[in-house]
Amino acid sequence: MSHSQESGGRRLDRRRFLTTAAVGGATIVGASALGGLDAEAAFADPMPSLDAAIPSAFAEGRIVAMNRNVLDVAGSHGERHLIQLTNATSIWKLRTTTAESIEVGDGLYARGAAMPDGTIAADAVWVNIVNVYVTIRGIAKDRLHLTHGSDELVGHIVPDTTTASYLGGALTADLSRTRIGQEAQVLGAWRPADGAIDIARVSLGH
Amino acid sequence: MIPLVSNLAPLVCAALLATTGAAKLFGRQTARLAANTVLVRVFNDGRRATLALRVLGGVELSLGAALLASPVALLPGAGTALLGVGFTGYLAYAKATAPESSCGCSARAEGPIGARSFTRAGLVVAGGLAAAGGDAAWWSEVSRRPGGSALVLAAAAAMLLGLTADLDRVWLVPLRKARIRVFGHPLPPASGERVPVAATVQLLENSLAWQTAMPVVRSALLDHWDDEGWRVLRYAGSYRDARGTHPVSVLFALDVTLTVDTAPNPAVRVSLIDEETEEVVPSSVLAPVPVRTPLPLAT
């Protein structure tokens, strides 16, 4: 208890320090351009490594074991990966989170650098991420009924997390413009227990 | 009521068996569907599995015909109940050994075996038993009690409709649409809402600041917090100088109220903090975005 409070306090102090640095002497860059490395980037080609001597690596599969900060991952094609999480590893599981929320049995996509000992030092890990094109077949207070081809899916709406984008506009928490019969792209986190999806983002009218 | 149901059971069972049997026996997709069932593993061969599914369709069809033609006889009813028991056993076996396989019950594309498949198989057992216990032909029952018969048949039809996933779009989607029309949209429009973090990330990723800092950024979003009107987004990164590669925190500070809709060209504060020394790294390590020179125009 006291330990977690202490570490929480440290975390806030650190944020305070970083805010001062970020807002105080920062470079201000205006105007617009293109690019992206959000959750969707899990499906993009791996970025070239900054250091030419370190080859970049990509891994995908189900977590079969966890040992401190090393994930033992069984790939879909029979391969095996050891993925090392560090302080600098970003972890996404429906939202930006920490290594504590990762469980054995989760699926993941990871990107990082291949280490000489065969492990992957992860830069970014996306847990249970799914990206599906669906048709909305029903709307309820806490979920959307979806079909993907002939498969039925339940997409849970998570308060303060689920966002929608209409016609390429800004992401908003307003889901009231969804309609039955619409085609949609759903980015979310798969729930291994029941096969449903927690929706991170639903894009409509693209 | 009970004799009414058991006398009409042959008609209901015959309708169900004829539909599913004909679909299996004559359906063009039977081969493709058989490939998704556990039968392939049982018979070790896709063609034999298809043949088995077609034979089963034939059996269902002839049972249906027998139920229609001689509803009072014991044999068709007992046969139907037996078939239902067989279905249940097959489903339990398939569920236990290959939970992802399709049931192949109605010879349509169906998802994994679920409660619906089991309920349908159970109903075949119950219908068969009821039919075996009937004491009058369904046509005499219908002519004797037309009102009650219509009610029972309508209830049976509704039940079968509800148990068939293929027909969901026939009734379920219009029902849901009607409910939204009557009761309004179940999800309230958000007014005066807080800008979601995802929207701020989207704003950042559309900005020149992002493009400038991208060569330094290595991770996805690590942490975020709001402070005095700013939303700070932290990423992990690394930069190289003469002394080697150094880990840094890449911090972006944006106005917490802005989105790509309200601010197409946001001002973004970018700073790099060295993770080891905790010092601000000069912004010269950020790659300036090259200015594009316009191509010469032919005049």
TrEMBL record, chain A:
PROSITE patterns, per database record: TAT (PS51318)
Cited InterPro entries: TAT_signal, TAT_signal_bac_arc
Name of the protein in its database record: Tat (Twin-arginine translocation) pathway signal sequence
NCBIfam families per the UniProt record, alphabetical: TAT_signal_seq
UniProtKB/TrEMBL annotation, chain B:
Key words of the record: Membrane, Transmembrane, Transmembrane helix
GO biological process: one example: methylamine metabolic process
Classification via Pfam families: MauE (PF07291)
Protein origin, superkingdom: Bacteria
Compartment(s) of residence: Membrane
Transmembrane regions: 51-75, 118-139, 151-172
Record membrane topology: Multi-pass membrane protein
GO cellular component: membrane
Every Methylamine utilisation protein MauE domain range: 7-131
This protein's name: Methylamine utilisation protein MauE domain-containing protein
Organism: Actinacidiphila paucisporea
Lineage, broadest ranks: Bacteria, Bacillati, Actinomycetota, Actinomycetes, Kitasatosporales
